[in-house]
Amino acid sequence: MVLINSRFHHIAWEFLLTCIHVRVNGGEVPTGDEGRIIIASPWVNDLENKSLRISSPLLDGVENSSRRSLTSLARVLEVLSYYGFDVVVVTSEPGCNKWKSSWAQKYVEKDRRLQNRLISSGITVRHNKDSHVKSISTPIGIMDGSANLTDNGFFKNIEHMHVYDGTSDDFLQARNRINQLASS
Fold first, then answer.
1. Which residues pair with 84 in a beta bridge?
2. pLDDT in tens, 35-61
3. I want to staple 137 with a disulfide (CB 3.0 to 4.6 A). Which of 38, 88, 93, 172 is the partner?
């Protein structure tokens, strides 16, 4: 496990893109919980921040191989679902009185549109108003920490994230813990 305090969006992107890369190039999607990709945060945005667009040979290769533009979180999750991954987003419902009660109506509607878009793409959206977990869990690696999956959490606030790659001693334990959240 490694603890990082900034620029972790590059690592999250690499974990997600690597899953697509493996699948596009003939790899199999692991079955059951092992193939599940879980995005968990009380607040999830489409991460449209231009900083998310990274210069990466992996990104270029995946976009070319999949023939899809992957410039936002929603688009990446849609492509993962298209390629057979079980994608689950655990978040609070739009306008949730615990986490989103102070939101202006236009932000509640934006949240609702994002969640509906994900659902219509075959992605499971689970509402859990009690969860304050912030995590991205893939068969390749896991990020778990304080950053919401929003522009503020990824690009503006000072946050920290623990990173576990698939070879880490703690990877399976962290993966099982997050899988339980998606199964509840």
1. none
2. 899 999 998 888 764 555 566 777 778
3. 38
Q: Are 166 and 141 in contact (CB under 8 A)?
A: yes
Phi then psi dihedrals of residue 144, to 5 deg = -145, 125
Name 40's bridge partners.
90, 135
Q: How far is CA 169 from CA 2, 18, 79, 174, in A?
A: 12, 20, 29, 10
CA–CA gap between residue 148 and residue 74 (Å, rounded): 15
More reliable by pLDDT, 168 or 10: 168
Longest dimension (CA), the chain: 46
Spatial distance between the Cα atoms of 177 and 37, rounded to a whole number of angstroms? 13
Q: What is the 3-state secondary structure (H, E, C) of the chain?
A: CEEECCCCHHHHHHHHHHHHHHHHCCCCCCCHHHHEEEEECCCECCCCCHHHCCCCHHHHHHHHHHCCCCCCHHHHHHHHHHCCCEEEEEECCCCCCCCCCCCCHHHHHHHHHHHHHHHHCCCEEEECCCCCCCEEECCCEEEEECCCECHHHHHHCCCCEEEEECCCCCHHHHHHHHHHHHHC
**Model-level pTM greater than 0.70?**
yes
Cross-strand pairs, 4: 161
